[in-house]
Amino acid sequence: MAKGKYSKDYRLVEEFRENGRVHTGFEYIGEPWFFCADENTVAEEKKKALGLIILAAAAFVMALIPYSGMMHRLWIALPFGFSAIPLFLTGDLVFSMQKWTGPMEHRNADKLNNSYPPRTLAVAYLSIVALIAEIVYLVRNGFAVPGDRIVLICTAVMFWCALMLFKRRGHFKAEANHVRNTDG
Predict the structure, then answer these.
(1) Domain count of the fold of the chain
(2) What pTM does this model have?
(3) pLDDT at position 180, please?
(4) Is pLDDT above 90 for 30?
(5) CA separation (Å) from 63 to 11, 69, 98, 115, 145?
(6) Would you tell me which of 10, 53, 173, 174 could form a disulfide with 26, CB atoms 3.0–4.6 Å apart?
(7) Is residue 25 in some structural domain?
(8) Are 178 and 34 in contact (CB under 8 A)?
C-alpha cells in the first residue's frame, strides 16, 4: 500500500476495457473540500487573481527587456531574479485554481491553504528588497539609463500585485464539508 500523506483519500479501481485489458486507476474517496466563500465571489476573485498574476509576470519580463544599469548590480539583480521562483510557483497555483470548481480533493485544498500565502509573501518580500535596492542605486547614481525607470516601475508593479494577491487569500481558503451560504 502506498504510504503518502493523502493515500487514505484514494482507492485502487480496476476497470475492464472493451479490448479485454484491465485498466487500473485511482478514485478519490476522501472528504470533499470547498471554498469558504460563495461560488460567485470565488469565481470573481479567481479572475482577479489570474489578472494580477499575469500582470506581475508581464512586469517581470518587461523589466528584463531594456538595458538597465541597475541590473548590472548583483545586490539588485539577485532579489529581483529570485522573485521569479515564487512568482511562477504562485502563477502555477493560480492557473490550477481556475479549473477547481465544486468539491476539491484534499491535496489541492492543502496546497491552496498552505502554499498560496507564503508564495505571495515571498514575491512581495523579494520585490520590495529589489525595489529598495533600486531606490538606493538611484539616489547614488540617478537615472543613468532610460531603462532604469522601466525596471523601477515594473518592480513596483510586481510588489503591488503580490500584495493584492496576498490580500485576496481569504477568498481562497478551503475547508472540508464546509456548509456554504447559497443565498445570493
Answers:
(1) 1
(2) 0.82
(3) 52
(4) no
(5) 48, 12, 27, 26, 13
(6) 10
(7) no
(8) yes
